[in-house]
Design goal:
The complex is a heterodimer.
Chain A: H1 3-40, H2 45-58, H3 61-72, H4 79-84, H5 93-117, H6 121-129, H7 134-162, H8 166-172, H9 182-191, H10 195-227
Helix pairs in contact in A: 1-5, 1-7, 1-10, 2-5, 3-8, 5-7, 5-8, 6-7, 7-10, 9-10
Chain B: E1 3-12, E2 17-26, E3 30-34, H1 41-49, E4 56-61, E5 64-68, E6 73-74, E7 82-85, H2 97-102, H3 119-127, H4 143-156, E8 161-165, H5 173-189, E9 194-198, H6 201-207, E10 210-215, E11 218-224
Parallel strand pairs in B: 3-9, 3-10, 7-8, 8-9
Antiparallel strand pairs in B: 1-2, 1-4, 4-5, 5-6, 10-11
The chains are: A mainly alpha, B alpha/beta.
Chain lengths: 228, 239
């Protein structure tokens, strides 16, 4: 394999892994926290909030990308303020992280909320009566009992972030070596008629996603066993 | 041991309303609340443990006020020193028998380690003959072992009282008789007062000195177990 072809795969793959890794890390913390709050919140507004947070799952990624540009672009509502702080999101890999995070967020939210709601509240009551403070109950009972469902959601979110195209392209653009992720690189290779590179990139992407899905699939039935 | 309970709570759903209005005083160390299912026994127990907040009332245990709606006192369940034996034991499924028993001894955000040993937990493991299954998970042990584990877990915390919610309903009849005798022997040997709720007259006879009958969310009568024949009366047809 010629050196430049290896380079053509490795650079976007490394960038995709970096972007998807950060997006997953952020979602694992934020998604789990919001899911827990929603699973405990007794209010009619709960379903509305859940629906709004699930929007990225159903809206076209280009629409999400457009919203993000309006929000964090140079003349955007938050963008101008971020710019004063020296934070630039448009056409940067951090912008790609933001796009991937938001598009993959509902996958963690949905799985984690279902996992939290599947935890029998009697275990939490039992811990309460045994003198365990509320934070202790979360880390010692609720989180471990919901863990498998959460991990399955986080893996799905990673796979989704890895394959992110539309919103990423709109926010971060297509700068080789800087914001050109795997899926964007595939698009460009096909447009340029470079079939060899396209085939290689497609193969690498497919294998990575299949491995992740198998891993997630193994965790989901196991989660039911634990909770049931 | 002295217990003073006055609890009022309206539980309204659209199709069914239930008013809990329980009031009793007992000096007994072996109290039994007897009545059909749905009478409000479990709700009373949950209120005493602090897991259900009454609309109004007062709960005083050995002179210590746990709840008083007028004085604005509502001690958190964590600080009530009241142990609760759940109907299906509620053993933590992701922790071993030993970790379950030592659960109340571990503070902070981490569970007791799988290898860690606490003298206080070990004492109850020995007392209940659970030594051979300390490394097993709740899903792997028998009903009787589950009950012993749950009792050990409750007693490790050195509670002021143990509340038992239908302690034998999850067991088959033969085991029920054995565990009932075991619990009666435990009552005789331990210093801890117990309040048991049950719909089974045999439980009440074995485990209660002071029996209170609960129906439709109210105490209907009470007394020493032998002098209280109406507890064996059939439940009215509308229930």
């Amino acid at each position: 394999m010629p050196m430049n072809s290896l380079q053509a795969v490795w650079v976007p793959l490394a960038l995709s892994l970096k972007v998807a890794g950060w997006a997953t890390l952020i979602n694992a913390v934020l998604g789990v926290a919001v899911a827990y709050a929603l699973s405990r919140w007794r209010s009619g507004a709960r379903d509305l909030v859940d629906a709004i947070l699930t929007l990225p799952l159903v809206l076209p990624p280009t629409v999400m990308g457009y919203y993000l540009l309006v929000l964090v672009g140079r003349r955007g509502v938050l963008g101008a303020w971020l710019g004063q702080l020296g934070i630039e999101l448009v056409f940067t890999w951090q912008g790609a992280v933001l796009a991937s995070t938001i598009v993959a967020f509902p996958l963690v939210l949905k799985s984690a909320r279902a996992a939290f709601e599947g935890v029998n509240s009697q275990y939490e009551d039992a811990a309460r009566v045994l003198g365990t403070p509320e934070a202790g109950i979360f880390f010692r009972i609720t989180l471990p009992l919901a863990a498998r469902g959460i991990i399955a959601g986080v893996l799905l979110a990673f796979a989704r972030a890895l394959g992110e195209f539309g919103a990423t392209l709109m926010v971060a653009g297509n700068l080789p070596g800087r914001t050109q992720t795997l899926s964007v690189a595939i698009y460009e290779a096909v447009q340029a008629g470079d079939d060899n590179t396209a085939n290689l990139l497609v193969l690498v992407t497919s294998v990575t996603c299949v491995v992740l899905l198998v891993a997630a699939g193994r965790l989901v039935p196991a989660a039911r066993k634990t909770l049931g | 041991m002295s217990m003073h309970v006055t609890v009022r709570k309206d539980l309204g759903t659209d199709d069914r309303r239930f008013a809990l209005d329980i009031s009793f005083v007992s000096e007994s160390r072996r109290i039994a609340l007897f009545g059909p299912s749905g009478a409000g026994k479990s709700l009373t127990l949950r209120a005493i443990a602090g897991l259900l907040r009454p609309d109004s009332g007062r709960i005083v245990l050995n002179g210590r006020t746990l709840f008083d709606s007028e004085a604005g006192i509502d001690v958190r369940p964590q600080e009530r020193r009241v142990a609760y034996l759940f109907q299906d034991y509620a053993l933590f499924p992701h922790l071993t028998v030993a970790q379950n028993i030592a659960f109340g001894l571990a503070r902070g955000w981490r569970n007791p380690g799988r290898k860690a040993s606490h003298p206080e937990a070990q004492r109850w493991i020995d007392a209940f003959g659970l030594g051979a299954i300390t490394g097993n998970y709740p899903g792997e042990i028998s009903g009787g072992q589950k009950q012993r584990t749950a009792l050990a877990r409750a007693l490790v915390a050195q509670p002021d009282i143990v509340l038992l919610d239908e302690p034998f309903s999850a067991l088959d009849p033969a085991l029920r008789v054995r565990m009932r005798n075991e619990l009666r022997a435990l009552q005789a040997s331990l210093d801890v007062p117990m309040l048991v709720i049950s719909h089974d007259p045999e439980d009440v006879e074995a485990l209660g000195d002071h029996v209170l009958e609960v129906r439709d969310g109210r105490i209907h009568g009470g007394g020493p177990v032998k002098g209280h024949p109406q507890i064996y009366a059939p439940v009215p047809a509308h229930e």
